[in-house]
Design brief:
This protein has 667 residues and is α/β, with parallel strands linked by helices. The protein is 52% helix and 9% strand. The radius of gyration is 28 Å and the shape is globular.
């Protein structure tokens, strides 16, 4: 009698991407030209040409193919891994959409199907799984060691790495280990919330800390100020700083605001283009006997530049001279820009020369010199515990010599990160200087005409570029014929950033199309307005606010021929609700686009976000269908001549070369 054959357990993923045997080996996925690949596309993208061909072939054959496994193999259905296994540690249940919102949705394409199509996506999925495994190892080790300092370090590191789920899980396991959270524990968790933009969670952490009888220190307060200011609650952030000063004067130790506290508030005054709060903050800084540093002065200068207050900005330079502080290149570049726009040609040229000289003197070079590389490390968080450097598995079980070596490596990496950051700032300053010099080269008469418009301000009725700010709760669709004075097609860029791409496109499309630019940050909207005025454009209008709200309130149904989303900020963490391209956005884009004519184009350099956007689109085949050949959900790289932002060009100088072009047609 023959011996029975040994049973081999094989995991078969739902999309047949791989066959993984117990020893860890795997078979490669199908070639994009193979019949198996076409069947996969037909399954998950039923509206594609490949899907139609597959159905016709099946009907011609008169048979239905069935995937079977040999009798000696045990087939196990393997659920597709999400790009972040971190979600498994988040105890908070996921909020399910209502039936009305999901009526047209279908099962999304699996992550593994997308990763099989692109090397960058496959690489990031592998990296995410490794991060998850490493995090789980640290969590287990923390519970085993039962040291609060270890917990504090890993909460800080998870927060700096924007692994919010793991930071919350580490904090929860402090109690499981029989320990009590310290002010460092709460501060690091608060910082984790703030870094991913979860202000509501940050408020809850603050309330829990107060309820537990743990007193915040100046670092805790600074993190709270950062969260409030980032969210746009500048007045509340300023009150918190004043409360810190009042408590300190009342004798409470360890809560006095420091220069970092004030700089945190000033930085966000720039983002929200609010020089008034910036001036109040600077006055409070003086009142608290805190000496401003270079960064503080630079933020104040840029806040005034955002308001086109050239005279006030130059006054900041005088203050820095009295304090014997060097003006950085980016501050000189900002002065050159605002001076040129307001018509002071002499000061603009002087600032351009000063910016170039400052770049030479700091000696950091530019990103174009030798490639950007990895520009930013994880950095230190505001809520750092002073107990030691970043915790890794090797550090925990290594000897003192290994720890010293690891600390030295971290210091070297931090030094490299600072140098790369200076290179980035130098490059940005020189880019602005070149733009100013090109503008000034157009002649004094041209500069004076632009300055006349700028000095009247964007709120002026005579402004050639309309700005619609706020009031998203008031539904008031724009009448494009009144806004632009013609019936030309209208195109929209969401997340327009500094306005380089949209103003270039608008100039290219003069007489052929009109453009809307939507951006949530007020200083960027003002910058885009200035660039449009500098180009003498009258086919651009600007929307300032959140995309979901502003599109629904101000963009009429069926009015757009194109919607572009270029390099949007990816979700800060896997459980984040702050994701631009979701079902609500896709439905609003579908409503705004003209039927059977409009197109939605998404471009990103983030593989995780590219996969997430493709999955969202695959849920609504009745709204959008892919334009790539064979129904492929995306294209690696962007078409030639598409254009890009400054940061897009900068990343190309480094090693971040992943680009994803996702173009769909409105059904």
């Amino acid at each position: 009698a023959t011996e029975p054959r040994e049973r081999v357990r094989v995991d078969v993923s739902r999309d047949m991407k791989r066959l993984r045997v117990l020893d860890g080996s795997s078979f490669e996925g199908p070639s994009p030209r193979s019949a198996k690949f076409k069947r996969r596309i037909a399954r998950y993208f039923p509206g594609s040409a490949t899907a139609a061909d597959e159905r016709l072939d099946a009907e011609a054959r008169g048979v239905k193919k069935v995937r079977e496994a040999p009798a000696s193999i045990e087939v196990v259905e393997e659920p597709d891994d999400p790009p972040f296994a971190e979600a498994a540690t988040n105890d908070e249940p996921e909020e399910k959409p209502s039936a009305a919102e999901t009526v047209d949705e279908v099962e999304p394409v699996p992550y593994s199907s997308l990763a099989a199509l692109d090397e960058g996506m496959a690489r990031i999925m592998k990296s995410n799984r490794k991060r998850s495994r490493d995090a789980q190892t640290l969590l287990k080790r923390a519970v085993k060691t039962k040291e609060i300092k270890f917990f504090n370090r890993i909460i800080k590191d998870f927060g700096n790495d924007k692994q919010m789920g793991f930071a919350e899980e580490a904090f929860r396991r402090i109690g499981d280990a029989g320990l009590s959270p310290t002010v460092y524990s709460y501060t690091n968790l608060l910082n984790a919330c703030v870094r991913v933009g979860e202000l509501d969670r940050a408020r809850k952490v603050w309330d829990d800390m107060i309820a537990a009888g743990v007193s915040p220190n100046e670092v805790t307060y600074t993190v709270l100020v950062k969260g409030l200011a980032q969210d746009g609650s500048l007045a509340e952030a300023a009150r918190t700083v004043r409360d810190m000063t009042a408590q300190s004067r009342a004798g409470v130790e360890g809560v006095a605001p420091n220069v970092r506290t004030f700089s945190t508030l000033l930085r966000n005054c720039v983002r929200h283009a609010d020089p008034g709060v910036a001036d109040e903050c600077f006055a409070a800084m003086r009142d608290a006997d805190v000496k401003p540093d270079v960064a503080s002065f630079e933020y104040l200068l840029k806040a005034r530049c955002a308001a086109m207050d050239a005279m006030g900005a130059w006054a900041v330079v005088d203050d820095m001279d009295r304090e014997y502080l060097e003006v950085p290149p980016q501050a000189h570049a900002a002065l050159a820009t605002v001076s040129s726009l307001t018509g002071d040609v002499e000061k603009a040229r002087s600032a351009c020369e000063a910016a170039r000289q400052a770049v030479k003197e700091n000696g950091a070079g530019t990103v174009e010199d030798d490639g950007a590389g990895e520009l930013f490390g994880s950095g230190g968080g505001y809520g750092s515990d002073s107990d030691g450097p970043k915790a890794t598995n090797e550090q925990v079980k290594g000897h003192k010599k290994d720890k010293r070596h690891s600390q030295q490596q971290q210091q070297e990496e931090a030094s490299k990160s600072v140098q790369q950051f200076l290179k980035l700032r130098n490059s940005d300053a020189l880019r602005q200087v070149e733009e100013v010099e090109k503008f000034l080269a157009l002649g004094d008469d041209f500069v004076k005409e632009v300055a006349a418009v700028v000095n009247r301000g964007p709120e002026s009725e005579s402004s050639p570029v309309l700005i619609v700010e706020g009031a998203a709760n008031v539904k008031k669709p724009l009448r494009f014929k009144e806004v632009f004075g013609n019936d030309l097609p209208v195109r929209l860029e969401v997340c327009s950033g500094h306005g380089d791409w949209v103003t270039e496109r608008a100039q290219r499309d003069e007489g052929k199309a009109n453009w809307l630019a939507l951006e949530m940050r007020r200083n960027r909207i003002r910058m885009t307005w200035a660039k449009a005025v500098r180009r003498r454009l009258d086919n651009v209008a600007l929307l300032c606010g959140m995309a979901h709200e502003m599109m629904g309130a101000h963009v009429p149904s069926g009015s757009l021929t194109e919607v572009y989303v270029n390099y949007p900020d990816p979700p800060e963490w896997v459980g984040s609700s702050q994701c631009l391209v979701d079902q609500a956005f896709l439905r609003d884009a579908h409503r705004s686009l003209k039927p059977c004519v409009g197109h939605l184009t998404l471009v990103t350099d983030d593989p995780n976000y590219a996969m997430r956007m493709c999955r969202e689109l695959s849920k609504v085949p009745r709204l959008f269908k892919p334009t790539e050949h064979g129904g492929k959900p995306f294209k690696s790289g962007v078409p030639e001549g598409y254009g890009g932002s400054y940061f897009d060009e900068m990343w190309k100088n480094g090693r971040q070369n992943d680009r994803y072009y996702i173009r769909y047609k409105r059904v």
